[in-house]
Amino acid sequence: MTRPRASLVSLSDTPWYHVVTRCVRRAYLCGFDRLTGRSFEHRRGWVELRLRQLAGVFAIDVAAYAVMSNHVHLVVRVDADRAAGWSDAEVLRRWRCLFRGPEVVERFLSPATRAGMTEAELEVVAGLVATYRARLADLSWFMRVLNESIARAANREDGVRGRFWEGRFRSQAILDETALLAVMAYVDLNPIRAGIAETPEDSAHTGIAARIAALRAGDDGAANGRHLVVAPSPDTAKRAPPDVHPGSQRARAAQETATSETDAPPATHPPSPAVTDHADSSPDARSTHLWETVLDRLPAAPLLPFGNPAEVPAAIPFTFDGYLTLVDSLGRALHPRKRGAIPADLPDILSRLGIAPERFVEHAGFLLKGFGAAIGAPERLIALAARRECRYLRGQRRARLLFSPPRQEQHACSIQ
What predicted TM-score, i.e. pTM, was given to this entire model? Predict the structure, then answer.
């Protein structure tokens, strides 16, 4: 039975989620189209940059990602407490990085006009702040902005209209640390398992490749998720950003605006022609039209760091060195053309979480199909099913095979 998104993404159950979104008809709209001979590989860079930009606006951190030729994998952590701690002005400024919003918001953010606002106008702003605060900690809105901006850019490049993504997105709740480790490794190893990359560092447009590139550059903080900036590939560096294309009137206008207002904060930039040309200019419509020129200028946010949750609550609860060794070792065993033996000296992270390496390799390709709306230990799935008042959650058998502690060898006592 179909369940509403609100029950599938429940922060009271877990803040961690595995998200998948696919191109329409699973076409290679972000890869090489063998039928036409055209390459759309540069769009993978668009997706990578845009999701990192949005992570800096929303209260949603990206732990891992893999941008494939016809689908995208994300592992995210939704931090509602962070959004709750933002001031009203901070909420409105962040929202205006995405959407222009009604004029009453512009008046509230300007000290010169805020003093003259009526009580009724201030009540309207208070209602908008509550709405925007909830949306900035909403996974559905995060994916909406990500998917919509990429679809607009791709359709504009192709000169077509219609769907780019087959639907909204699919999400899986990650219920415990063991499931988080398995899902992150599953996502980071996606290009290797598909046979399009040999090693994690060669897996273009993935979180693990970005971390390794920062590590090679000598920035340990960046590799661990601090101050990490997406470097465009040589192919995408020659191309325009996803929402501005060379030679267009909008590109020239954006260039002139950037030249004259370099030092101005993003939210004060005028809206792009694509926004002002909308026939519907009502406050409600303006508040939900992407402010694409401002969106293009957002900086890329760092990936979620690894660390001790007791010291840094918003952190991946593993060491980066141990995770990197694990992904590198398992990548050799998972490659379809280079199946190798699992090293005996895998990091302690597996034994600590009770995962047998052989079973992980055997079931690593079934984390999406083998599980339903949630991934975790069998007892966690049973508890979640009880809270959702459903009899069963798909993945119980796979959870027992993958996450249950290895059975100890039992020595039968002979009866004399």
Answer: 0.77
